[in-house]
Amino acid sequence: MKANIVVKSNYIFDSISERPYAGFVAAKGNKIIAVGPSDEANRYIDSDTVIYEFEDKLVMAGFHDSHTHLLMAGMFKIYVNLGSARSEEETAKMVKDFYDKNPYDGWVFGFNWYHVFWDIKELPNKKTLDKYFPDKPVFLLDAEAHGAWVNSKALEIAGITKDTPDPFGGEIARDENGEPTGFLYESAIAIVAKYAFEFNEEQERAFLKKFMEEAAALGITSVVDVQPYFGRNLGSLEVYSGLEKDEQLTVRITAATDLLGDLDEAVKNSVKYKSEKLRAHMLKQFVDGVITTHTALLLEDYEDAPGNRGIQLSELDRIKEGILEGHKRGLWIKIHAIGDRAIRFTIDSYEEAMKKYGKKNVRHAIEHVELINEKDRTRFKELGLIPSVQPEHLGLMPTWEGEEYRITLGEERAGTTWPFKTLLEQAGVLAIGSDCPVVDNNPFFEISRAITRLHDDGLPEGGWNPTEKLTLYEILRSYTYGSAYGIGREDELGTLEAGKFADIVVIDRNLFDTDPLEIREANVEMTIMDGKVIFKR
Asked: For the packed helices 70-78 and 201-218, what is the interaxial angle rounded to 10 degrees?
């Protein structure tokens, strides 16, 4: 059999062997038909074969992001990124400057601001936004995606007044007179997001196309779309399917919809959407929040808040019922659990579901797994659970001196967080994701961070909890095979092998010969998805 495309390189990394080798990958249609040493390539070549020679550039399977908020990630790529702002005023002005240069109808959006990054670490006020946007509603999501800053027009549209009660698991920030200040915390975001995130098909397609364009340039060929966001699923499966029918879907999507939603509908969708590019057999929900705001659930008190073991955001009884029912129906579940108490609760719930209904053909996951008790680490393997982690979160704070975990958890517990190596050893597999738009979905950021465990200031020396560093082989295999395993498609995706889909990425250097810090500067030369070149630098 002759190939349509043959990719040659001195460095083929197949996600199986621990080191790359000189060889080729041959594809016909949308499948790989052969992978092997250089001297065997000619048997798959004829006059119609397109040959790409990449010499010392790394060829590997496409990246598989196991945790993306797909629609919001597309918005993140379109609207203003506020991560560099160092004050409330600067943040608001950045939004205004961007809008003036790129005017658009509807709500004004921005992402990635964080008062913790500011010189004065105080929550912002609607009045600052009102100066620039007196008549247009503004919705700015913070870097953790657990807080939103809005203006008076947004509050008016959502009907939030002095008399609006705080919802369960959330808070409307108020001034000394009880008036809403414009900051919404956790589930309170939903009151405004209900209106801000009401999109038509044209808008959703625009967000998705921007995401796919950027993903292709980053070598991302598959994602898990974690859709639930404060009471609703963000993203329409019909729109995704429409793009696939129009042959415009250039990323494989596995949708994880709301665990607390309509499970009858979820079961129907798991059958209805089962194509080569679109699947919908997963569910997702939050058990806790984040450590920096004391909303992660802990087994012991926060270091800086004696008596506080986490502010509960979720109705745990409902989550447990959802896990039991979802498992019973054969749906695969992903649970956001960051604190050690949240992780134990989630593992206990999974175990109860398996005891009650059998193990079934499912692979449930725990998302983030930042602080886990030693007693719970071995339970991943026993129950067949997938640890799904996002290494770039480790460097969310720009400096080691400003690392909030050292304050909220204390040095000893902070030194045990993000146990990537241990999880890989105990579970036998890791799935890797970005959590975009919480952080950028550039895979080279995740890879470098997992290997070095350094903040952007190069500290702490030797890395944060250095025994948990991953090797380059481990992170690349996890970012390809591990994530594919996490959705049950390891027989089709995740390695360069004959019979698998031709999702291939070429990187502008051999990462195995690159300084780990310089990996952040790497770029993708070419991305092939489903046997077609979708990006070429």
From this structure: 80
Residue 388 dihedral angles phi and psi, to the nearest 5°: -115, 115
pLDDT digits (tens, 9 = 90+) for 23-78: 999 999 999 999 999 999 999 999 999 999 999 999 999 999 999 999 999 999 99
The residues near 67 (Cβ < 8 Å, ≥ 6 apart) are 224, 226, 334, 367, 388, 390, 431, 433, 434, 435
Contact 336, 287 (CB under 8 A): yes
Architecture of the 287-493 domain: Alpha-Beta Barrel (3.20)
DSSP-based three-state secondary structure for 158: helix
Range(s) of the chain covered by CATH 3.10.310.70: 72-196
Sheet of strand 365-368: strand arrangement = 63-68, 220-226, 252-258, 278-286, 332-337, 365-368, 386-389, 431-432
What is the signed CA dihedral for 206, 212, 214, 217, rounded to 10 degrees?
Answer: -150
- pTM of the predicted model as reported, rounded to 2 decimal places: 0.95
Q: How far apart are CA 69 and CA 59, in angstroms?
A: 27
What single letter denotes the amino acid at residue 499? Answer: G
**Position of tokens 């967000």?**
207
8 A C-beta contact, residue 365 and residue 390: no
With a pLDDT cut of 90, the percent of the chain lying above it is 95
> Where does 5-61+499-536 sit in CATH, by number?
2.30.40.10
Residue ranges, comma separated, of all CATH 3.20.20.140 domains in the chain are 287-493
Beta strand extents in 239-290 (DSSP E only):
252-258, 278-286
CA distances from 233 to 199, 203, 268 (A): 12, 16, 16
Asked if residue 22 lies in contact with residue 10, where contact means CB atoms within 8 angstroms, the answer is yes
Q: Mention the CATH class of domain 72-196.
A: alpha beta
Calculate the average pLDDT of the chain: 96
**Cα distance between residue 366 and residue 347, in whole Å:** 8
pLDDT exceeds 80 at position 231: no
Which residues, including other chains, have CB under 8 Å from residue 353's CB and lie 6 or more apart?
A: 323, 324, 327, 328
Runs of H (alpha helix) within 124-262: 126-132, 152-158, 189-196, 201-218, 237-245
Q: Among residues of the chain, what percentage have pLDDT more than 70?
A: 100
Q: Kindly state the DSSP code that residue 84 receives in the 8-state scheme.
A: T
pLDDT by residue (tens digit) across 394-444?
Answer: 998 889 999 999 999 999 999 999 999 999 999 999 999 999 999 999 999
Give the DSSP letter string of 524-535: EEEEEETTEEEE
d(Cα 45, Cα 48) in Å, to the nearest integer?
8
